[in-house]
Structure formats: C-alpha cells, structure tokens
Amino acid sequence: MNKGKLIVFSAPSGSGKTTIVRNLLAKEELNLEFSISATSRAKRGEEIDGQDYYFLSTQEFKNKIKAGDFLEWEEVYRDNFYGTLKSEIDRIWKLGKHVIFDIDVSGGLRIKRKYPDETLAVFVKPPSIDELKIRLKKRKTESDDKINMRIAKASAELATAPLFDVVIENDDLDKALVEAYGLVSKFVHFKKKEH
C-alpha cells in the first residue's frame, strides 16, 4: 500500500485550528482527507457516526485498546476516551490521499513519534491567553468554569509548542491560512530523493 503523509494540527481550544483544517480540506490540489476520531462519549446534537466521530461504547473502546487497534488514544475524563484508529489511516491511504488531523497536543505528538518521517506536526498558537479567553467566551458554548478549565489546560499545551515541527501564530486568520497552506503544500509535494 502506498503510504501518504500525515499532517497534524494541534492547538489549545479556541486557537483556530479547526478553521485552518477546514480551509485546507477545501483545497483539492492538496489531496487531503480528514481523520475521523473515535470516542466513547455520547453523540451531541446532530452528530453522525462515521462522519463526525466513530462512536463506541466505553467497553468497545477498551477492547480496541487491548487489541492494539489505536494509533493513539487518551482518556480525557474518566471513561471518556478519544483516539485515532489505525484502520482510519489505512482507509485514507487506500484512497491515495494524505491524512489531516485536528487533534489535541498529546495525540499529535504521539503520531509524530510513531511516524516521524511521514508527519508534519503544526502547532497553532493564539496571540495570547487573554485573546484565547475572549474567543472561547464569544463562542457562547461553554460555562465560565469550563472556559477556565480550558484556559488552564491551554497554558500547559502552549509549553509543548517547541516539540512541533512548526508553530503558526494565529493573530491574523487570513495570514495564518496562507501560512498553513504554504507549509502543507510544500510538505505533501516534497519527494524524498532515492539513493
């Protein structure tokens, strides 16, 4: 099977990584396919199994961990698991496409460690923690407690930025979109020289 490349976008919540990933997916010349994560949490709203997430019961998730079916996984809260199935990567590579991830920092770094040569790991950095707080409040999707939890987590996540291949500072979305496109385009079109 012809291996494609893996493009990881990680960032604290509210940094704009999802917007950047969606923009890249719309660029057909990049030949990208989104990696759908598996989760043990319940569906929310209009979410569709196999499109938004692969929804598994906690037991199914644990069985897949034991079977070694995950490229990476994490227990975010007690019995609340998220992860990337190896079969998802295979599915995308069989389509002849490159895999793009919108994934948390620790998951992104695990993928980079497992596939160091095939992975471009990009960290999307907000201009500041204060700006991050403003963005999260503007969403109006979470309580102040939940926002404060995300801000506390963001500080720890920002410390991991140097472990990524590239850091994009998202203080101007248009500029960040152009920068992300340039990086990904160069990475997917780069051919290793044969010896």
Describe this structure in words.
This protein has 195 residues and is an alpha/beta fold. It has one domain: P-loop containing nucleotide triphosphate hydrolases (Rossmann fold, 3-Layer(aba) Sandwich). It has seven helices and nine strands. The strands form two sheets. It has a five-stranded parallel sheet, sandwiched between helices. The longest helix is centred in the last third of the chain and has 17 residues. The model has no long low-confidence stretch (mean pLDDT 92).
| Alpha-beta content class | alpha/beta
Sheet of most strands: 5 strands, parallel
Distance between the termini: 21 Å
CATH topology: Rossmann fold
CATH class: Alpha Beta
How would the global form be characterised?
globular
| Low-pLDDT windows of residues | none
In spatial order, strands of the major sheet run 2-7-1-8-9
Give the name of the CATH architecture: 3-Layer(aba) Sandwich
Tally of separate domains:
1
Topology of helices and strands:
Blueprint: E1 6-10, H1 17-25, E2 32-34, E3 38-39, E4 54-55, H2 58-66, E5 70-77, E6 80-85, H3 86-94, E7 98-102, H4 105-114, E8 119-125, H5 129-139, H6 144-158, E9 166-169, H7 173-189
Parallel strand pairs: 1-7, 1-8, 2-7, 3-4, 8-9
Antiparallel strand pairs: 3-6, 5-6
Quick recap:
The protein has 195 residues and is α/β, with parallel strands linked by helices. Helix content is 41%, strand content 22%. The chain has helices spanning 17-25, 58-66, 86-94, 105-114, 129-139, 144-158, 173-189; strands spanning 6-10, 32-34, 38-39, 54-55, 70-77, 80-85, 98-102, 119-125, 166-169.
